[in-house]
């Protein structure tokens, strides 16, 4: 591909000069969108037209299929008319997988089953075709390419569950960039992770923010690591700040979910929100009552997966909480941007607690359990229990706090096997 996008690919790990940022009018994500959609340039009008065509094609396919969405109109006159269609809920997704599958089982290359790690939502089955997965690999490569350079080792600290699992898809994207994936995975001890990073001289890492921060603190510094793409869990502001201080560079947050084939929004070198994969995902932000919210206001993210072959979803309520950032990104890109994404806030909230507690330098990790009116915090590290209690007290003034701290050895594997949450002790009979 010619033009500015081709020039961008020659610059290592997104380290563009300030003048280049002002000159370039396309992010790597938009470069990829233009490539897969055979577009010479991208603007809002072109993108809106593409989305409407995709939406109407999807509605026509659904009408012909006669499945879960058989009652919807076959065509809309504008994207605004999408708001007249009903929402799809996680419960409906859980209960109607066969009716939501748009096509033959023979076309399915990958099925993800079960509840999302660390959440209490219903168990779901999500289907992908080989084309769906290939698009996700290309999308991943666009995001990772802002950070990683050809030839370097990139540690992938994400789940590995087979040839088309998340970890392997990320590794394929890293290899596509000419970099070398280091399959760190999840569940290794701190000692094993540190040894692998040191031996392979990994310069970039892709993983969840809290485990990465804990590892760097336990190692006593970043070692060879210089950059990180964080995903797979909420990215609390306090944890992000600590990670950026340790690495000496800005982080590249990514947002995705299994319902959108694992990849949804990535960060550009301007670090002003996450650019949406708008050729494949039409996003809305709605109030608790389902009303559309303007840019800048926080609400629930709703997605329509326009170009998924196996299981497209129409107005799916993700349960994730975010907002559209108003205005254009300083990078000059035209795709819409999401602010930080989290689950719908609870009280007490693990994201706020993470921000407060990980401001304590000696903390490596902790888990939290709410047992009636008692919040139990089991911490790992070299921070006094009284300091943890003081940091948590401001967020939980009405709860009794019980804090236990243990030291961390090289055999420590972390406090959570997946996404972080405040566990809640159910009362008998509930």
Can you give a write-up of this model?
Helix 3 (28-37) packs antiparallel against helix 7 (130-144), helix 7 packs across helix 8 (166-176) and helix 10 crosses helix 11. The longest helix has 22 residues, at 44-65. The relative contact order is 0.12. 30% of the residues lie in helices and 21% in strands. The strands form four sheets. An eight-stranded mixed beta sheet has the order 4-3-5-6-7-8-9-13, with helices on both faces. Strands 10-11-12-14 form a four-stranded antiparallel beta sheet, with no helix packed on it. The protein has a four-stranded mixed beta sheet with strand order 17-16-15-18. It is globular and about 60 Å long. Residues 1-24 have low confidence and may be disordered. Strand 6, helix 11 and strand 7 form a beta-alpha-beta unit. By secondary structure, it is α/β, with parallel strands linked by helices. It is built from 13 helices and 18 strands.
- Please state roughly what percent of the residues sit in beta strands, choosing from under 5%, 5-15%, 15-25%, 25-35%, 35-45% or over 45%: 15-25%
What kind of sheet is the major sheet?
8 strands, mixed
Number of helices: 13
Whole-number average pLDDT? 91
Stretches where pLDDT falls below 50 for ≥5 residues?
A: 1-24
Secondary structure: helix percent? 25-40%
The total count of strands amounts to 18
* Outline type: globular
The N- to C-terminal Cα distance equals 60 Å
Which structural class best describes the helix and strand composition? alpha/beta
Oligomer: single chain
Using the CA coordinates, give the radius of gyration: 22 Å
Spatial order of strands in the largest sheet: 4-3-5-6-7-8-9-13
